[in-house]
Amino acid sequence: MSGVREDSQPRAGGASASAPAISVQNVSVNYGEVRALENVSFTLAAGRVCGLIGMNGSGKSTLFKAITGMLRPDHGAVTINGGTPALARKAGVVGYVPQSEEVDWAFPISVRDVVMMGRYGHMGFARRPKPADRGAVDDALERVELTELADRQIGQLSGGQKKRAFVARGIAQGATVLLLDEPFAGVDKRSEATITTLLRELAAEGATVLVSTHDLNALPRLADEAILLMRTVLLQSTPAEVLKPRNLARAFGLDVSEGGDE
Amino acid sequence: MNPLDFLLEPLSYDFMVRALATSVTAAVVCAVLSCWLVLIGWSLMGDAVSHAVLPGVVLAYVVGAPFAVGAIVFGFLAVGLIGIIRNTSRVKEDAAIGIVFTTLFALGLVLISVIPSQTDLNHIIFGNLLGVSWADLAQVIILGAITLGVLLVKRRDFTLYAFDATHAHALGLNPKVLGAALLGLLALTAVVALQAVGVVLVVALLIIPGATAYLLTDRFSRMLVIAPVMSALAAVSGLYLSYYLDTASGGMIVLVEGGVFALVYLFSPSQGVIGKRFGAQRRRRMLAAQ
């Protein structure tokens, strides 16, 4: 299944360079009677940071699940680098930073072990780490400035450090499509700035970053473009355009002023 | 009596040697599996599967198939039924588990009562550690070795599944396959432990060692050592206690396991209810002394 893989990290995930990094076409997802996503379409080019803006319940997490293929859309299709999500997963292209509530922070695992899990796609049947894997983990930890805390249990980190640990996992993985679900929730401003800088650097190196956030003030610094989601894509444009009150009002309801959230 | 005699005397009986080997094997295999079960939150599932395998074991006996085959079939049947009830009705998961495993267990009891066999119902329900034959022991060791081998070779995948199934999926692994593999191993383990402590108490071996180890360390790799060592020691001491006190062997083993958990719950340096306080006091004294 997933045993053998080349040690090199194919940056483009073995797909055509001209195809958009993420392409979502007419995707609809239902949970029983409830329609979570309706006819969602957008494309993201490689090397861009895109903010995903929407209320709770607007379908952001569902959209992430549809892109990773964790959830099969009822209609429509997702392609990553021009190929199927399954192909991209096998190539180790897709990195995912989960929402805080989805993680068991009491799990008996160290920061280093979490980052090492990014390397499993590069390892053999028993996932025994080789020197190259240890090196990649050390590099990733250093890059997110967690080297000193590497042997802490994951739950003993601050909110921002936890997020950085998961970003490091994606870096160690060599992921070129990074999906971050609410990485700034419960994170102090300094850590948010660190993570923002890090994501911008990764994008400059060619990664595609899709990040859902409630922090509208920080959006222009973070993202090249943004998507307003309300079960469907209301608008995909520059942060400045998306943040205009009349546009936000469509996604959040009429009483929301510029810069506020929820 | 000198301590050496105390330890050696029971071993002069063949049946005690077999009992010891069986209980230690079962204790170790269950303990390793329990590390994942308590972290995923599958303790109740362990209870359910260990009971639900009973009709499978009885039917396998009737048709002359290996017990393990019957156990796996009914283990998956139970998990499947629980999933169906949970997903297609308003009944919550704990209720679905309770309904399915008791019904399948009852089916096993009824089957035993209508099928003429040498097997004593009490032996299946409470275990028959002192009556284990060499053939039983061989089966326990073979199944135990297979289960332990798969668990240890694929331990990193199972841990990834327990910690972050979404990431496992994003890496191209199949979380459903990993989950199903764990459940299959759970059914195999239930057969192993059935011999030792019986259907009712299997769940103790499947939960207590992992939960105890979880209170002692922040490293999963250490849990995988602490849990089986603790459980094997509990099995040996429980068996010796039952020999000298003339009490039920399966019950005694589980009683010791529970006792160890209670001690760790109270006195674990990092997590213990009392141990944490002592640790804090000691640190304060050391700071004051400086």
Describe this structure in words.
The complex is a heterodimer of chains A (262) and B (290). Chain A is of the alpha/beta class and 262 residues long. Chain A is globular, with a radius of gyration of 18 Å. Chain A contains nine helices and nine strands. A six-stranded mixed β-sheet of chain A has the order 5-6-7-3-8-9, with helices on both faces. Chain A folds into two domains: 16-93 and 210-262, P-loop containing nucleotide triphosphate hydrolases (Rossmann fold, 3-Layer(aba) Sandwich); 94-175, no CATH class. In chain A, β1 (22-31) and β2 form a beta hairpin. Chain A has helices at residues 60-68, 85-90, 111-116, 131-143, 159-173, 189-204, 219-222, 239-242, 245-252, and strands spanning 22-31, 34-44, 49-53, 75-80, 94-97, 177-181, 208-212, 225-229, 233-237. Chain B is an all-alpha fold. Chain B has one domain: ABC transporter involved in vitamin B12 uptake, BtuC, CATH 1.10.3470.10. Helix content of chain B is 82%, strand content 0%. At the A-B interface, α2 and β5 of A face α8, α9 and α11 of B.
Short summary of the structure?
The complex is a heterodimer of chains A (262) and B (290). With 262 residues, chain A is an alpha/beta fold.
Q: Which strand order does the major sheet of chain A show?
A: 5-6-7-3-8-9
What CATH calls the topology of the largest domain in chain A is Rossmann fold
Helix content class of chain A: 25-40%
CATH class of the largest domain in chain A: Alpha Beta
Structural class of the secondary elements of chain A? alpha/beta
Task: Provide the β-strand percentage band of chain B.
Answer: under 5%
Measured by DSSP, the beta-strand proportion of chain A falls in: 15-25%
Number of helices of chain B: 13
Taking the sheet with the most strands of chain B, its summary is:
none
CATH architectural name of chain B: Orthogonal Bundle
- Identify the CATH homologous superfamily of chain B: ABC transporter involved in vitamin B12 uptake, BtuC
Shape of chain B: globular
